[in-house]
Structure formats: structure tokens, C-alpha cells
Design goal:
Order of helices and strands: HHHEEEEEEEEEEE
Radius of gyration: 32 Å
Helix content: 25-40%
Shape: elongated
Number of helices: 3
Number of strands: 11
Length: about 210
């Protein structure tokens, strides 16, 4: 009987040991799985360009090294015609913030009593001052179907909080910036070639010539 009791006790001890060993193995497995899942999630959730596209990240860095310091400062652009007056100035800060002002007026050529004449100038609702951010980046705004290129990202809201539309929320093709000129793709208005050439420095709109 003692032998039988000893055998049963040994079997129970062996069973407990196996159960403990299996439980510990499962715990180690679970911990390893959680750590792996957390690492994968962190990698997938990162918005750093180098994780998704190393080439784009490298070219973005070079783009900012070359043109970032030249972007900083105030730029202005004016485009006047018989039916439109457009003036804008943008100030880019080194920390990526942006301030600006847009003055925009328009009128129409109408026929009254058989005679052509212009209506009075009226302010376009997109006129006003605004604040936002800017960023230079090499990428394709259209996704995989588009061509990667140098871009200027602008996001800005009007200082007038009552407006429910943005002053800027766009990605513009960036050509270059130097000591005198900032050349980017036109957005609200543009030159015949589709581009806008901003000039460096402060200026005021000159709407008196039209």
C-alpha cells in the first residue's frame, strides 16, 4: 500500500510539474506574441516616409536641405486684368508655420442697352488673412498611379473664424526657390503656363492701374 501511495504521489508531482512547465511555456509564447504584435503595429502606424518609401524619404530630406532655408521669408504675387485683380503675400517660417493675406476682386463685362460696360469691382469671398503650415515633400499626391515629384503642401485657415472653408488645403508642384523667385504650380490663379512666380519681399497691392 505504501508503494502504491508513493507511486500515486510521484505521478501527481510529475503531472503538476508538466502542467507548470506547459503553463510557463504558454505564458512565454503569449508574451512573445504580444511583443511581436506591438512591434508590428508600431511599424505600421508610423507616418515617417522612410518606412513606407525610403527613396521618397531620402529625396524629401535633400529637397528640404536645398530649398528649406530659401523658402523662409515673405513672398508676394500680383495678377491684374480687365476683369480680375489678385494679390497675395505669403510668409514662410523656419518652423513650418505660414501666414498670408489675399486680396481678390472681380468684375464682369456686360451689355446694357446695346453698349458694353464693366460692372463695379467686388471682393471675392476668398480674400482675407490666414494662418497655417507649409511643408516641402517629394511624393505622389495621386498615390501609386501618379508620378512622384517635388511638392509644396499648404494648409491654412482664415483668421476670420466664422468662415467654414479653408484658405489653402492643397498640394502644389514645386519648381524652385532662390534669392528672388519662388516658382510653384498655380492654384486659384495662374500664368498662361500654369505656374506662379512669387517675388521675394514685402509689397502692397496695386489695383489702381485697372
Amino acid at each position: 500500500m505504501k508503494t502504491m501511495k508513493h507511486w500515486r504521489k510521484s505521478r501527481l508531482s510529475e503531472s503538476d510539474a508538466n502542467l507548470f512547465s506547459n503553463s510557463r511555456a504558454r505564458a512565454v509564447y503569449v508574451i512573445a506574441f504580444i511583443m511581436l504584435a506591438a512591434f508590428s503595429l508600431a511599424s505600421c502606424s508610423s507616418d515617417e516616409p522612410r518606412w513606407a518609401d525610403p527613396e521618397a524619404h531620402e529625396k524629401t530630406v535633400k529637397l528640404n536641405e536645398q530649398y528649406g532655408p530659401l523658402m523662409v521669408g515673405t513672398w508676394h504675387y500680383e495678377n491684374n486684368s480687365d476683369t480680375q485683380r489678385y494679390f497675395e503675400h505669403l510668409t514662410f517660417q523656419a518652423d513650418g508655420t505660414l501666414t498670408g493675406m489675399r486680396k481678390w476682386q472681380a468684375r464682369k463685362l456686360v451689355t446694357i442697352d446695346g453698349k458694353e460696360q464693366y460692372t463695379d469691382w467686388k471682393d471675392v469671398e476668398l480674400s482675407g488673412s490666414f494662418t497655417g503650415t507649409w511643408q516641402l515633400r517629394y511624393w505622389s499626391p495621386e498615390g501609386n498611379s501618379g508620378e512622384k515629384r517635388n511638392c509644396l503642401l499648404l494648409t491654412a485657415t482664415y483668421d476670420d473664424a466664422e468662415r467654414d472653408f479653408m484658405a489653402y488645403s492643397c498640394v502644389l508642384t514645386f519648381a524652385y526657390a532662390d534669392a528672388t523667385t519662388l516658382r510653384i504650380q498655380g492654384y486659384y490663379v495662374k500664368n498662361p503656363d500654369g505656374w506662379i512666380n512669387y517675388q521675394r519681399g514685402e509689397a502692397e497691392p496695386d489695383f489702381s492701374s485697372k
